Amino acid sequence: MIGIDWGTSRLRAYRMAPDGTVLGQREAQRGILTVLPGGFPDTLRAVTGDWIAEGETSIVMSGMVGSRQGWLEAPYLPCPAGLDGLAGAAILVPFPDAALSLLPGLSCRDRHGVPEVMRGEETQMLGAAPDRGEVTVCLPGSHSKWAQMLDGRVLGFATYLTGEAFAALSAHTILARMMDASAPHHAGGFARGLARARQGGGLLHHLFGLRALALFEEMQEEEAASYLSGLLIGHEVAAALEDGVAPPILLIGAETLTRHYATALDAFGIPHRTAGPDAAARGLWRVAERLP
Amino acid sequence: MIGIDWGTSRLRAYRMAPDGTVLGQREAQRGILTVLPGGFPDTLRAVTGDWIAEGETSIVMSGMVGSRQGWLEAPYLPCPAGLDGLAGAAILVPFPDAALSLLPGLSCRDRHGVPEVMRGEETQMLGAAPDRGEVTVCLPGSHSKWAQMLDGRVLGFATYLTGEAFAALSAHTILARMMDASAPHHAGGFARGLARARQGGGLLHHLFGLRALALFEEMQEEEAASYLSGLLIGHEVAAALEDGVAPPILLIGAETLTRHYATALDAFGIPHRTAGPDAAARGLWRVAERLP
């Protein structure tokens, strides 16, 4: 089978054996925002046409490809939901070359009734999380997700605009003058930002404090961006803990970013482990096993 | 005398009688960022030359004009500080046309040792606050200031990057797609944002919630920017209260913005009043009275 994790800015394709072994994988800068209307079938062919020609007859897709801006809109599946739920809610997409299934994303509401959504992360979570027991899954990113899982089902989750806030604040406020957002990671600055996040005063106050530290020459330019990153990630972790997420935390994501989150969790004294790569491939394969 | 409140983007000039009555006032879009090196004397002449020709011999300036990017750098005066302290720390600036005094800004450190600075707001606070008793002063803005004052002295203060965060987040994140940051104020959206800020979960989570509300058609485009404004101001007020600021609050600033902050304080049940206009003029005059 072929599994496709098709997001806003990127497409990842996996060819898998019947037992789930990943036989091949590809990444293309063909996120849904780069695809013109009606262009999804040809984009899929361009990335996976040779695998189909070699005999693959079944494709499963997850991610923003199922959003309003994607190929077809797959309505969100409300939590709690697991692999069986995703498989049951999959949409069969007209595609002459193979059987093409599109998975929904998940939705829930926080205790105050405000909605939450994800597309793609659910497949990674269900690929990486254990089938039994409680675990909190954290997927760091532009829109970081923290999900409570029990016995292989997502009970609920919360999203934090951390990555996007970093990009906007580091480039479009007075902080831009004192930092290079693309500077190498600075462990000392990151740790200072994490420590600051654990103090009172609120994020908006801490953002100005970064500016004032620089004015007083108590913040070097090379550590400022990492300080801001640590500050924002620290506020995210603090809010998630205040929201009641329980350890252990299972981190899923790109290696560098999950390592930074691991450092942040260590600073808070929270036990954690990091999932192996290809959680998405495993999730796609596990859902495919359950398709009707 | 002539009082000048010279900020980053704007210059306000006041001509005052010996008893402090404002005889005339002007505003020019000649903030320090618009002045070329060496251009400060001529800019001041352009705005106040006729008043000087008519016999004014004394000028007092406050604001970013005393920063490293201004006319001359006036080192920050540490808190606690009052009118006498500002007058004593004034710098005499070489200017052939009149006696020209430049006031310092104030600095302090929060309980964790992180520095805080202001330039110009101290003069407004000392112009508007009572000479006796305790009061918390709030000056809303790009960098909102909350100061504790006792018997006419600023004991300490905290800054929140609220206005700048609004500008950056509303224009440079996914939120930009769902709002018009220049839309008219929407009282209902603002109130919803304030209420959300009082719930747990943290600002970064609340920012994504705004996006999700729009996806579920539970947030209209015309209320989204006011919701974001209410959310950020609400987080600022909540953090200030958590930081221990005590009512009553004295609001100082532009009429529309102080009205929004008054609404926010009402939502939190915090008593407040709003200072009259020309706090800066009054502060400049009161310091001038005390110059050596």
From TrEMBL, chains A, B:
<dbReference type="InterPro" id="IPR042258">
    <property type="entry name" value="DGOK_N"/>
</dbReference>
<dbReference type="InterPro" id="IPR007729">
    <property type="entry name" value="DGOK"/>
</dbReference>
<dbReference type="Pfam" id="PF05035">
    <property type="entry name" value="DGOK"/>
</dbReference>
<protein>
    <submittedName>
        <fullName>2-dehydro-3-deoxygalactonokinase</fullName>
    </submittedName>
</protein>
<dbReference type="InterPro" id="IPR042257">
    <property type="entry name" value="DGOK_C"/>
</dbReference>
